């Protein structure tokens, strides 16, 4: 799957507040999708640090796109679990959000997400996810 259908999915399938994150598809591989989360004052808290809520929303969104890429089409799904670890703050740069499908069966899918600074490449957030496939 190319990045165009995934970019289109962001506007077709997600709520307006998710679209307001301004995520852009950066890279698509067989088992993963990388999105760019642009640095924004609207997504930052005191000190210009990217807020955790934006990281979690971007991570969840990236995994849905990774599942679309994996299956070749959108399959309705619901987040069952998203376990996140915030390792350090991110400020003054965009974030790259890479979601990787670890396993996807008929009823459940599992994945992992890494969010890193786009300029320095340092990981700031990691998550593991479980989705129910409908």
From TrEMBL:
Alphabetical list of Pfam families matching this protein: 4HBT
Domain Thioesterase: 52-120
CDD domains xrefs: PaaI_thioesterase (cd03443)
KW Transferase (keyword) present: no
Entry-linked SUPFAM superfamilies: Thioesterase/thiol ester dehydrase-isomerase
Family annotation (InterPro entries): ACOT13, HotDog_dom_sf, Thioestr_dom
Key word Hydrolase present: yes
Keywords: Hydrolase
PANTHER family: ACYL-COENZYME A THIOESTERASE 13, THIOESTERASE SUPERFAMILY MEMBER-RELATED
Sequence similarity: Belongs to the thioesterase PaaI family.
Protein name per Swiss-Prot or TrEMBL: Phenylacetic acid degradation protein
Organism, as annotated: Limnohabitans parvus II-B4
């Amino acid at each position: 799957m190319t990045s165009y259908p995934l970019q289109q999915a962001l506007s077709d399938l997600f709520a307006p507040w998710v679209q307001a994150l301004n995520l852009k598809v950066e890279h698509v591989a067989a088992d993963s999708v990388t999105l760019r989360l642009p640095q924004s004052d609207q997504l930052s808290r005191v000190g210009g640090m990217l807020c955790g809520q934006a990281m979690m929303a971007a991570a969840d969104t990236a995994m849905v796109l990774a599942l679309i890429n994996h299956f070749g089409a959108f399959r309705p799904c619901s987040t069952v679990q998203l376990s996140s670890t915030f390792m350090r703050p991110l400020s003054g740069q965009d974030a790259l959000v890479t979601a990787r499908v670890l396993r996807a069966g008929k009823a459940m899918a599992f994945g992992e997400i890494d969010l890193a600074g786009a300029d320095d490449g340092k990981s700031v957030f990691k998550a593991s996810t479980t989705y129910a496939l409908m």
